[in-house]
TrEMBL record:
Similarity annotation: Belongs to the short-chain dehydrogenases/reductases (SDR) family. SDR65C subfamily.
Taxonomy, superkingdom: Eukaryota
Localization per Swiss-Prot or TrEMBL: Plastid, Chloroplast
Keyword Metal-binding tagged: no
Organism of origin: Raphanus sativus
Protein name per Swiss-Prot or TrEMBL: Tropinone reductase homolog At2g29260, chloroplastic
Coiled coil spans: none
Residue ranges of the region described as Disordered: 1-26
A molecular-function term among this protein's GO annotations: oxidoreductase activity
Low complexity composition bias: residue spans: 16-26
Length: 305
């Protein structure tokens, strides 16, 4: 196994999770918050709403949306491997999951680095015996500034973290995805891949590229029964957007263009991702599903008529 791999102990009885005590959710901070309401234990062949027996890689699973996805997939029966750059935070997360009986392993990995992506996939291949049912490309970052002010380094950081990582991880995962009977790829895009958002030209371009790669791979890999989809969130309460949303005037503007009039929760994204991973969505491929409170379809809906 590659260095930097951490494993949790074998799962305890997951049914006992409902009564286990874990930290209370805080609005923008990640903690072990998910309790599986019910655990799907039957095989995918008999249960279209179960991920039992499936292997999954979720990048960036220690906080925010990625963390919610890890917990959602585990609750549905998958074995999950995740990664992050911060070793201490990864270890803490794995300890918390272990205490809750979640079957999660993790590796320290910066997905913007080609060699580290290769190491990550070598580890995943060894852990899951060359078969990967689910790849969730969750990692992404943002630098907000006018396009003309971008330095070459900033441009390169956004492109390598947000897009090149997705492209290369898909390439590396392909033999393992193809080795299963049915596999899925879900990438976390953004509404910025559809509409213009202030000072986000480069981040938007990377998300637009993910959207088109999703459509192309859906067609290219359909012959292998690999479905490829993306989920495009608007503002979700995570550490990434905590600072920008601390500005009350800005937050009010966000509410005013969001028909549902609120921010999203990470678990409202992870449920959409999980659906796209389930056998229940077996005829859906090449789609980018917005999880955005209606923001991307909003033309003119004044809040005060
Ligand atoms: N939050 C929103 O409002 C929003 C809206 C639209 C789209 N999205 C998209 O949703 C995805 C997740 O965002 P989030 O808000 O959940 O982010 P977040 O709260 O900042 O969490 C990011 C996670 O990814 C890991 N990570 C970051 N960079 C990494 C790298 N280079 N290599 C490996 N791991 C890395 C982080 O751990 P380490 O820091 O330890 O590496 C952490 O676990 C991103 O693709 C983002 O673009 C978010």
């Amino acid at each position: 196994m590659a260095s930097g791999l951490y494993t949790t102990n074998p799962p305890q009885n997951l049914h006992s999770l409902a009564s286990s005590s874990s930290p209370k959710p805080q609005s923008f901070k990640s903690s072990v918050t998910v309790r599986c309401a019910s655990i799907a234990t039957s095989s995918p062949a008999t249960n279209r709403w179960s991920l039992h027996g499936m292997s999954a890689l979720v990048t960036g699973g220690t906080r925010g949306i990625g963390r919610a996805i890890v917990e959602e997939l585990v609750c549905l029966g998958a074995k999950v491997h995740t990664c992050a750059r911060n070793e201490t935070e990864l270890e803490e997360s794995l300890r918390g999951w272990n205490r809750s009986g979640f079957q999660v392993d993790g590796s320290v990995c910066d997905v913007s680095d080609r060699a580290q992506r290769q190491n990550l996939m070598d580890t995943v291949s060894s852990l899951f015996h060359g078969k990967l049912h689910i790849l969730v490309n969750n990692v992404g970052t943002n630098i907000r500034k006018p396009m003309v002010d971008f330095t070459p380094e900033e441009f390169s950081t956004l492109v390598s973290t947000n897009f090149e990582s997705v492209f290369h991880l898909c390439q590396l995962a392909y033999p393992m995805l193809r080795a299963t009977e049915a596999a899925t790829v879900v990438s976390i895009s953004s509404v910025s891949g559809f509409v213009s958002l202030k000072n986000m030209s480069v981040q938007s371009a990377t998300k637009g590229a993910i959207n088109q790669l999703t459509r192309n791979l859906a067609c290219e890999w359909a012959k292998d029964n690999i479905r490829v989809n993306a989920v495009a969130p608007w503002y979700i309460k995570t550490s990434m957007v905590e600072q920008v949303l601390s500005n009350k005037d800005y937050l009010d503007e966000v509410y005013s263009v969001t028909p549902l009039g609120r921010l999203g929760e990470p678990k409202e994204v992870s449920s959409a991702v999980a659906f796209l991973c389930l056998p229940a969505s077996s005829y859906i491929t090449g789609q980018i599903i917005c999880v955005d409170g209606g923001m991307s379809i909003n033309g003119f809906s004044p809040r005060h008529d």
